[in-house]
Design a protein that fits this description.
By secondary structure, the protein is an alpha+beta fold. It has helices spanning about 15-25, 65-75, 80-85, 125-140; strands spanning about 1-5, 10, 35-45, 55, 60, 90-100, 110-115, 145-150, 155-165, 175-180, 190-195. The protein has one domain: 2-Layer Sandwich (Alpha-Beta Plaits).
């Protein structure tokens, strides 16, 4: 599994209705995208849920790199973002764990993200194991549609993304409205952690 997200930060007075209309018109284009586990069309609005910015920040979970590569540079969709907003940097992480939560049967309407940098020079085993324990607790929480844990070994960063069936619970610092969820290969995503543990 491979997770990725790009963040398009917009002016403070930007009409976020433009982004909502964009997603309403184009979101279905990824509903059958080959190799895509899910794409969560996420937005943050300045002054809502503590957000300091207006931002369009879709989050993807891919089953493998083929669909991701096609999307980014194979003519499979990213060109629309580049043409309309310029080319944003794309954060990417190796998928470490994924699981549907207790609210999986209902549609998700919100998401939250927690990003954690590992201490400089630290052995990653214990920080990742701690994050996995937090992730397991999160997976069982009421209102959780699904939860993902992923690691960027280039910058040694852990990200946890949670999809919620209603309002965001917990204290994750980044909170989003979820405008649309494309999940063409959701059922193909491996469930649980992606490495054997002692």
């Amino acid at each position: 599994m491979y997770a990725m997200q790009y963040e398009i930060t917009l002016p403070a007075d930007y009409d976020m209705g433009i982004i909502r209309d964009r997603v309403a018109g184009r979101g279905r284009l990824t509903d059958a995208y080959e190799g895509l586990g899910f794409k969560a069309y996420l937005v943050r609005e300045r002054g809502t849920d503590g957000s300091p910015v207006n931002q369009y920040a879709p989050f993807y979970l891919w089953g493998d790199t083929a669909g991701m590569n096609r999307f980014l540079w194979g003519g499979g969709g990213f060109g629309g973002i580049v043409g309309d907003f310029g080319r944003p940097g794309v954060h990417h992480w190796t998928g470490a764990a994924f699981r549907p939560g207790p609210a999986h049967g209902s549609a998700p309407w919100a998401a939250s993200r927690l990003r954690e940098r590992l201490p400089e020079g630290a052995d990653p085993r214990e920080p990742v194991a701690r994050a996995l324990r937090r992730w397991e607790e999160r997976c069982a929480a009421p209102g959780v549609h699904a939860a993902l844990l992923a690691v960027d070994p280039r910058h040694w960063e852990i990200v946890q993304l949670t999809l919620w069936d209603d309002a965001v619970a917990g204290d994750d610092p980044d909170r989003y409205a979820l405008l649309h969820l494309s999940a063409p290969h959701w059922r193909d995503l491996p469930v649980g952690s992606r490495w054997p543990r002692d």
